[in-house]
Every structure is written in C-alpha cells, then in structure tokens.
Amino acid sequence: METLFIVLIGAMAAILANQNIAVFNDGLRPVVGEHIEGRLKRRELGVTAFAMSFGLVIGFGIPFTLSASIILIHSILLGTDIIGLITPKNKWGTPLAAAVGGLYGWALLAGLESFVKLFDYLPVNFLEPLGEVGTPVVVTFMAFPALAVAMQFSIKKGILTFVLAALVRQLTVFVNESGFLSIGENVIQLNQEGMALIVGMIFLFFYAMKEKGDEGSSVDLAAMFSEKVKSIKNNVIYFVIIGALIAGATNLLIMAGDPISLNLIAEGKITDAGIAAAARAIGFIPLVASTAIATGVYSPVGFTLIFVVGLFSPNVWIAVIVGGIISFLEVMLLSSIARFLDKYPGVRNSGENIRSAMTKLLEVALLIGGANASNMIAPGFGFFFIAGFYLLNEVAGRPIVRMAVGPVGAIAVGIIANILVALGLMSIPQ
C-alpha cells in the first residue's frame, strides 16, 4: 500500500506539471505562467525548472528524507516538477512524464530502505547523528511569526511578538511540569513550541488585518484574474485525487509536508506534528492563493491542509476521503479567498514575508543542526568543516543555497569520516 501511494503521487504530480496545471516550487509558478502566455519556450522552461529545483532535491529534500526515514514532500514533488516540465507536453510526453514520475517515487521509497541498510556496513554509521540536523528546527520554528511581523510592520512589534511568544512557551513548560491540566488521573502535556507558534500567528494576523491599503488602491484579484481562477477550477478533479493520495500517505507516516512535522513524526509526536503542520498551512494560504490566482498555476498540495488531515485522521481511508474533500473546497473557495485578501492588503502582503521569515529561520536552524550533527560524527573536525564550508560557499556566491549548507555539510562530513577511518587517519567516534 505504501509503495502504491508513493508511485501514484509521483505519477500524478508529474502529469500536473507536464500539463502546466500545478507545480510544487512556489518560484516556478510565475515562470510556468510565462510559458502558458507564450513568452517562454518549453525547452527554456525545463532548464529553468531543473536549475531551480534540482539543488533543493539533493540538498534539502533527500537529506531530511534520509535523516528520519520519512519522505519529505519536497524530495518527491520538486523532482516531479522537473520531470513534468522537461518532458514535452504532447500525446506521448504526458504518459512518459507519468511513468517516469511514478518510477521516481518508487525509487525514492525503495532506495530509502537500501540506504538505511547500507549505513550498518559503514565504519562510521552516521545515520543517527544525521537526525540532529533537524533538531533545532522544531525548537526555533516558533520564532518565525515574530520575524515576519518585524519585516512587515516594525522591529518593535516584532520584538513584542517574540517576547510574548517566548513567555507563553515558558508558561506552557511550567504548566506541564506542574501538572495543572489533567483529565482524571491523566496529565495533559501541551506542546510548548506549538503554543508559542499559535500566539505568534495571532499577533501576525492581528497586525496584518489592521493594515489598510491606500484609497482607491484596492484591486479585485478574483475579477482581474477570473480566467486563471476558472482554469484552476476546471482541473479540480486532479487536485482531489492527488490531495487524497497525499493525505493517505501522510496518515501512513511515510510522508511529511515540512521539516518540522517530519522530525516530530520521527519522534512519535503525531499530535504535535499536526499542530505544526496546521500553523504552517495557515501561514502559506496568502502565498499559495496569490500566486495561483495571478498565474493560473496551482500547487499539487494546495494550502498544505491535507497534511493536517493525514496526521489527525484515525485511519488511512478517512484521510483519503477527507483529503479529497479539503482539496476540492480549497479550489472552489479560491475566488472568495482572493476577495478576502483584497479586502485586507496586509494579509495578502504577509504571504511573502511569511515565506521569507521561514526561509531565514530555516537557514539558521539547519546550519546549527548541520554543525551539531557533523560534530557528533567527527568531534572537532565537524565544526571546522561546517564553518569553512559555509563561509567558502558565501564567498563563491552561494552555489549551494544557504538552507542546504547544513544538511549537505553533515552528509559530506559523514562520507569524509568514513574515508579517514578506512585510511587509519581517524578513530571511530564512541
């Protein structure tokens, strides 16, 4: 069943990309829109998709997938973006994209098991330390709403949001340790990072909804891009199918929508993972809706609420049904969301700031995580390597995106450590 879900997701996502219906990479949607309008050739589109997504697959998606033995959605859907857009959009290109996409999904799942077994034969098994790459992400993620507030409104409001979120976190820790909340004899444990995240999101949307546009500056997005919204709605059946499949795969705990929930799933904290996924989904609604309405190109995961459905559903079949329904409602409500975003320009504008804040936070958290993992693999040398790797990458003009430096560096240290042990230049870390 697990293999079937992943193969079907890979095939369907590749078809959506091939037909210019949906791509996972947010930055690709405007590019695909240019191709649809006839301003960009198919060959150029394929090359652009490869350049924008391949590094993220290798440097971001795969390392997280390996670290937790759970497929991070980026590793499969960024790959199917490339597959779908490189293959021609014709009567043989679309079936080819579906076949290659399905095969890619299968290889990702099958290769994952082989990789895990391979690590047992290495002199330095660095799979467990590699899991430390994502540890700081879960803890630091609660700070992104404060950063988004500071970027969009003011540093003072950002600091206020950060302080109050931190205070709520520590109050939650106190409540948990004191056992104040209980049902019968069972003490309820609240997730401190999740509570802080919710407080931060409340402040972010409070400030955003207070921000008004200039007189006469309001633009009816739904009316202005009605044909593009209509084209997305015409393809709703595809989004229902892939939404149902992804919700089912998430319920089987073989897939996660982001590094935070992935690490929580790996730790067995399914409810906390669902809360983190919900907070992320709420934050991404303005971004996904705005890019979809403006370009006519949607996301195969919609507003990412299907991951929340998968994590909170009692079984896989309910996840499949509810995931399909949620995907249908998201598409049908696209015009209403456009009008809401138009009514509150601050909320609409917050989409890009939320994305930027998440990116900056992940860059820092993954660098710290990569450094910690590397030092566990090769004490002393690990910190030295990551610091040098990061600085040289900056000087070289960032050929590797900052977000990927920590994970890629940790994998590199693991490989180097095994070579050094094989050459007798390093002892096996205890």
From TrEMBL:
<protein>
    <recommendedName>
        <fullName>Transport system permease protein</fullName>
    </recommendedName>
</protein>
<dbReference type="InterPro" id="IPR019733">
    <property type="entry name" value="Uncharacterised_YhfT"/>
</dbReference>
<keyword id="KW-0472">Membrane</keyword>
<feature type="transmembrane region" description="Helical">
    <location>
        <begin position="187"/>
        <end position="208"/>
    </location>
</feature>
<keyword id="KW-0812">Transmembrane</keyword>
<feature type="transmembrane region" description="Helical">
    <location>
        <begin position="68"/>
        <end position="87"/>
    </location>
</feature>
<feature type="transmembrane region" description="Helical">
    <location>
        <begin position="94"/>
        <end position="113"/>
    </location>
</feature>
<feature type="transmembrane region" description="Helical">
    <location>
        <begin position="404"/>
        <end position="428"/>
    </location>
</feature>
<feature type="transmembrane region" description="Helical">
    <location>
        <begin position="158"/>
        <end position="175"/>
    </location>
</feature>
<keyword id="KW-1133">Transmembrane helix</keyword>
<feature type="transmembrane region" description="Helical">
    <location>
        <begin position="316"/>
        <end position="341"/>
    </location>
</feature>
<feature type="transmembrane region" description="Helical">
    <location>
        <begin position="6"/>
        <end position="24"/>
    </location>
</feature>
<feature type="transmembrane region" description="Helical">
    <location>
        <begin position="361"/>
        <end position="392"/>
    </location>
</feature>
<dbReference type="Pfam" id="PF10797">
    <property type="entry name" value="YhfT"/>
</dbReference>
<feature type="transmembrane region" description="Helical">
    <location>
        <begin position="133"/>
        <end position="151"/>
    </location>
</feature>
<feature type="transmembrane region" description="Helical">
    <location>
        <begin position="277"/>
        <end position="309"/>
    </location>
</feature>
<feature type="transmembrane region" description="Helical">
    <location>
        <begin position="236"/>
        <end position="257"/>
    </location>
</feature>
